Amino acid sequence: MLVSHGLNSTKLVRHQSSVTAASDDAPEEAPEGTYSEADHEHAVISTFDLFSIGIGPSSSHTVGPMRAGNIFVTDLQEAGLLQQVEKIHVSLYGSLALTGEGHMTPSALLLGLESADVETVDTAYVPERFEQIKKEKKLFIGQGLPEGKGKGKEIIFDYERDFRWQWGKKLALHSNGLRLTVFDKDGNMLATNDLFSVGGGFVVNGAMSTAATSTTTTESGSGELCSTHDEPTGRHPADLAENMYYKEIRRSDAAGDRRTGAEIRASDNSEAPTGLLGEEENGLVQSAVSGDVAAPRFEETQGPRYPFRDASSLLALCHKHNLTIAQLVYENEKSHGYTDEEIQEKIWRIWEVMDNSILEGVQAPVDETLPGSLKLHRRAPALYRRLTRGLYPSHTQSLSTTSPRSPLNSPRPIKSTTTTTSTTALARKEASGKRGPPRVHGSIAHPVMPSPLRRTTFPAMDHLSVYAMAVNETNAAGGRIVTAPTNGAAGIIPAVLKYTVEFLSDDVERDVPTFLLTAAALGMLYKRGATISAAEGGCMAEVGVACSMAAGAFAACMGASPETIEQAAEIGIEHNLGLTCDPIGGLVQAPCIERNALGAVKAISSANLALSSSGMQKVRLDDAIRAMRLTAKGMRNEFKETSLSGLATSVPFNIPVSVPDC
Questions:
Q1: In what helix (H) or strand (E) does residue 462 lie, and over which residues does it extend?
Q2: Quick check: 17 and 261 in contact, CB under 8 A?
Q3: How far apart are CA 551 and CA 599, in angstroms?
Q4: CB count, 10 Å around CB of 417?
Q5: pTM for the structure as a whole
Q6: Average pLDDT of the residues of the chain
Q7: Which CATH number describes the domain made up of 3-258?
Q8: Radius of gyration of the chain (CA)
Q9: For residue 592, what pLDDT band results from cuts at 50, 70 and 90?
Q10: pLDDT, tens digit (0-9, with 9 covering 90-100), for 607-654
Q11: Which GO terms describe its biological process (predicted)?
């Protein structure tokens, strides 16, 4: 939604869509939920939108806001307003305000306004540039746009004054809401945009456009826009906004059938447009973007070749056309306009980034702490060393001389904090140190004898745990990872796929595409039928969904039928229902990192249960997704990524979430 004022040309005004414009007094929960059983919107989106490359620590609080900033300045550029901007106000609402600082939302959003690309931005540059913006009080909006010139438009930006945390307020559509408002040199509002980060890096605009005339308004006391309409907000997001199912910055670049919003059109002068947002009360009118628009990447299509809306229709299509789930998704990707070569290239690029995020995590210094006030120590490097003890190259070589395999703009160069000599001494001490008698806690004179300490070994569980924790520690440090389907659960799918590739696969060229395409199909079902946003469904929407996706994908690589894959996915989500999202300190660290390790192990267990069963399960995947949706609706807001209850308030950690994290 782009709201424009004071343009010299004929103004374009947006009808109120079924999205209610930003309302500060919106109810905490819409009674209808966010899904309608009568909705016949298909579930198919691109695998490469569901699995997108981004930066940590959060897909909804970091990746989404950076993409939102890009969308906003692109709209300004296309409307011819960019060079008129002299001031910008940024406001965060709901979960974005409550946990945004610990999720690095401010730095991501401001770099998005400077048109940084979340897939390619140097992750080490993000915090550096953020500090520079705060110090110099300057922002160069749109400097990375293809049409931009040089540094973009330089404006004065005082972080303490212009970046606003709206604690206790929530916009109507979604808890992860943000509002961007720009003004000209005279203080007149030029444009405002309400955007919603709905999970997995997807960003939804708040309204659709139609034509009318505009008026000019000056900045109000707060410089913000409120809706005066009470339109219901409980419909499925597909009915509400045009970009629920794609991640392109420009609408024209998306596949034609996924542009669900109304087209921009001139109003009929004989009939006044209805439902204008706040037209009479505050004099604000909404303008569609105008000007030249880049040529679309996709031709208009009739939709995917094999559209499905739920698990039942997905299985029916597989049987009707004699295709595996992965094959069916592959054919749909071709409907999105990709060639065979492009599909393969994108699949292997995703796996490359996943694999590299594991490598980054296990090669990090053993004694390094993660960013944030928790001062949480990395655990994956030490666990990996113990897991690979006795293998070549030795730890003294691997940890002091190796570097990531591929130049993927890694989070930071891995620099060992110890010299080769000191590391060698440590290894020698570990290998030859004199062992004392085993420690025993308890009385040896008691009838129930105490057990001596023993080290358990479950190689599969150990590998899965290390892989998953490595990814999430990379994510927590702001590194480059793949949203799978979110950042908070980014370790589960890479861990299970890594284990499959390294220990089980007899054909990696077959199994990597099979795994990712199958997982993508399952993720599409959750995105359409429930949610992949922790702000809507707690951690079951992140770790629960990722566990389900990994379980089904693992079963597919084991040769399972579509029905068995469905059963594995159902088991994966069924036993994550009600899982809360209550991160300590608002950081994606505790319990998130360990929870990914358990999610990976649970995914393998779910798949094995399905593979060893008779296939006569009572609960279908569609039933479980429906149950997830109802559970999400019934959960209290305190357990939906707000850090207002649960572990976040039970652990003695006396730094309020709303206080900016250093």
A1: helix 459-476
A2: yes
A3: 10
A4: 10
A5: 0.78
A6: 79
A7: 3.30.1330.90
A8: 25
A9: very high
A10: 999 999 886 789 999 999 999 999 999 999 999 999 999 999 999 865
A11: gluconeogenesis
